[in-house]
Automatic annotation (TrEMBL):
NCBIfam families: F420_G6P_family. This is TIGR03557 family F420-dependent LLM class oxidoreductase. The keyword Oxidoreductase applies. Residues 12-290 form the Luciferase-like domain. It comes from Agrococcus sediminis. The keyword Oxidoreductase applies. One of its GO terms (molecular function) is oxidoreductase activity, acting on paired donors, with incorporation or reduction of molecular oxygen. It comes from the Bacteria. Pfam families: Bac_luciferase. PANTHER family: 5,10-METHYLENETETRAHYDROMETHANOPTERIN REDUCTASE, PTHR43244. Its EC number is 1.-.-.-. Keywords: Oxidoreductase.
Length: 318
């Protein structure tokens, strides 16, 4: 079991993200994963820095902490050749500590390049072609590729690491599970849904299984729920909605019905270590083995101390 910390880039300034990653290593986390968006989710969010620059700085400031994107869309806003090059370089400068998490994207960030927002089937077909291009470029040499959606012309990634990064693919149903099994090295999910892992394994999948555990450490449960509501109230909308809304204003309007009490149900809120262990256990029991704690509480340093002194030892003992 690997325990990670989610760097929520949509609401944290660039240098503070780097500082938190350093503190996460000191607190005993095994890895950090960072969202890779152009826009934040909500009007209250005032940040959304370039994830790859943040990860490079973290690689230079840490020694053992593993790094991951959670997740990058390599098929619309980025061309997969750029992601193949970026991931290979980051694997080299981090001394083999990088995992490439990829997914089909969200309209919120992918639409900015003016290519529209494809329907879900086309998004998965684009993702398949992107994975094929990345694998092709990582095989060494010069390559071209002509797909239905993506093309590559006489391209070569010159700096390849001795050990390539693992690719974990975001999974939300049987179609993406099959894709992750065929072209990925692992899977990434946001719900403690054992059926996703089973579908992936039936399709031949094996390897690491990533997920995010919603927590909100605070002096009391209400304070944790209020902090989670301010930062993460978009979460209960569900992935079919999250992928389709175009901008923070739309998310603000769509979350007007989400109450603080709803966040208390969705997040492990407050200081009770047993509540946090319980939330973690839901994902572990479903079969996930790389769990990133996504803390929505008001004080990250208090959360790091809580993890180092109480929560981390309990989770590892479990």
């Amino acid at each position: 079991m690997q325990i990670g910390y989610k760097l929520f880039a949509e609401d944290v300034a660039p240098k503070e993200l780097i500082r938190r990653a350093v503190e996460a290593e000191r607190a005993g986390f095994d890895f950090v994963e960072i969202s890779d968006h152009f826009h934040p989710w909500l009007p209250e969010h005032q940040h959304s820095p370039f994830a790859w620059a943040i990860l490079s700085a973290i690689a230079a400031r840490t020694d053992t902490l593993r790094l991951a994107t959670g997740v990058t869309c390599p098929s619309i806003r980025y061309h997969p050749a750029i992601i193949a090059q970026a991931a290979a370089t980051l694997q080299i400068i981090s001394d083999g500590r990088f995992t490439l998490g990829i997914g089909a994207g969200e309209r919120l960030s992918e639409r900015i390049v003016g290519q529209g927002w494809p329907e879900v089937g086309d998004r998965h077909r684009r993702l398949r072609e992107a994975l094929e291009i990345i694998r092709l470029l990582w095989s060494g040499g010069t390559h071209s590729y002509r797909g239905d959606f993506l093309q590559l012309q006489d391209a070569r990634v010159y700096d390849l690491p001795d050990v390539l990064p693992e690719i974990v693919v975001a999974v939300g149903g049987p179609q993406s599970a099959a894709l992750a099994a065929e072209l990925g090295d692992g899977l990434f999910a946001t719900d403690p849904d054992a059926s996703l892992i089973k579908a992936w394994q039936r399709a031949g999948g094996s390897g690491p299984r990533y997920a995010e555990v919603p927590t909100a450490f605070a002096p009391d449960e209400r304070a944790g729920a209020e902090a989670a509501h301010a930062r993460f109230r978009f979460g209960p909308l569900g992935w079919k909605v999250l992928a389709e809304l175009p901008d923070p204003t739309a998310f603000d309007q769509a979350t007007q019905h989400v109450r603080v009490e709803d966040m208390a149900d969705a997040f492990a809120c407050g200081p009770d270590v047993e509540r946090h262990v319980e939330a973690f256990g839901e994902f572990a029991d479903a079969g996930f083995d790389h769990l990133a704690l996504m803390d929505g509480g008001p004080d990250p340093d208090a959360f790091f101390a809580f993890f180092a002194d109480e929560l981390g030892p309990r989770l590892r003992a479990r």
